[in-house]
Queue: 3 jobs
Job 1
Amino acid sequence: MNTEEPTTRPIPFTSAMVSAILKGEKTQTRRLAKEPPLAHPGAKKVEYSPWCSSDFNWLAKDFCGNVIGASEVDAFTPPKGLPGDRLWVREDWKLPAHLDSLSGRQVGETLYAPVYFVADGYKRRPLGMLNSSNDEVPCWACGWSDGESEPGRFRVGRFMPRWASRIVLELEGVALERLNGLTEANALEEGVSSATIENVERFGLRGWPVSEWQLTAVGAFKKLWDSINAKRQPWDSNPWVWAYRFRLLECEDVVIANG
């Protein structure tokens, strides 16, 4: 656990994965990493754990348990943070139609507007401002006011500003590993599922057509990965990835920062 003040960084998720997070079905995510300068070239995985020192360095071990010195991994600090740090989620969203001509940032510079979240159709509206640690932050209520215009144009999640985000995650674990080292258990925690009767009833396989159902969760994750990363680093290239394990913070644990 990171004993320093936790940092908060943005992270985008598709609507299907946001839905899985909210249902407690997704607690891991994998993101492309640079090729690490490992002391042991055969290493397939690097686990990060805290090393108590005055400047809070990090040590890592490869899959054989060989220690990789902090100086060798300094340039590869997990870009999304260390255990204890937080991530605010960018997801697909909409604003009231009469604001369609404005960007989310422009709206946030002048007022806070009602937000519609595509993943589950949830709506919320600003009630006013609260003062928290001398920073004013928006106070939200469920639903939109009577007479509010209908949700407008679709807005891609990667452009969501901080003020509109509703989800904050806390990192519980970080690893640097080869993508193909993904296990069936890992794949299930990534929010995908295999094509069993039980999983079809529970997950609905995220709306995929029957022709694309997979017999294993790993197969489903491979298909999901390539749908996003095929042009850069497809599954078969077995790239290094950052594997993040996280938990969804309850509302009472979260103070939404202005910015």
Job 2
Amino acid sequence: MNKFQKETLKKRILKLAMLKSTGAPADLAERFEISERSVKRIVREIKEGGTELRYSKTRRSYVTDKDYQ
């Protein structure tokens, strides 16, 4: 995966997280045709970039709203 592809995936994951509709990491991996490990690596990079992003077990989705339960 090149840098452009990774940045595109970051934007797509963030957009889905804002909608609270990413699904589980395995779902994202299948959707983007990458490994689950790659999904987790990209999510970690998003977090390291300063974006509030966490996985909600209730929603089974990554979410950006830090107050969301």
Job 3
Amino acid sequence: MRITDIDAMLRIFTDPLVIASFGIAPFERHQMKQWVQRNLSHQNELGHGLSSVILKCNNLLIGDCGLEHTVVEREMVTELGYDFLSDYWHKGLATEAAKAVRDYAFIELRLPSLVSLIRIGNDRSKGVAERVGMTLISELTRYGNGYWEYGIERT
């Protein structure tokens, strides 16, 4: 991901179907800029983060996928996250990207485990998590919202 991806990422975070899955208001440009800058800081500090997903056929940025460190139940975990424009749902692209990131996390980074935090009811993201081998660990509340915590361990 690059700072120049702000406007393309804003298309994702103003997509009504994407925003509905988060249960939040669409991002404003200044919020998207902060979000991208936070991710870039994460990449600089840890060597990995969310990457832009670009279609090869037309160089269109259609999503992001990658790793972020976050706290769940007072424990630092590595989250496998993904966000895609709704026009590109149901094409296997999120699953393909998530599998590649999972493999990178386990093979190259040698991380012991990954989680995905998914708003309860977001069956599309739940399906991606399950297709990459994750299983439901728990249900939890974050910021007043219910989440499924999916996880997978390196074998």
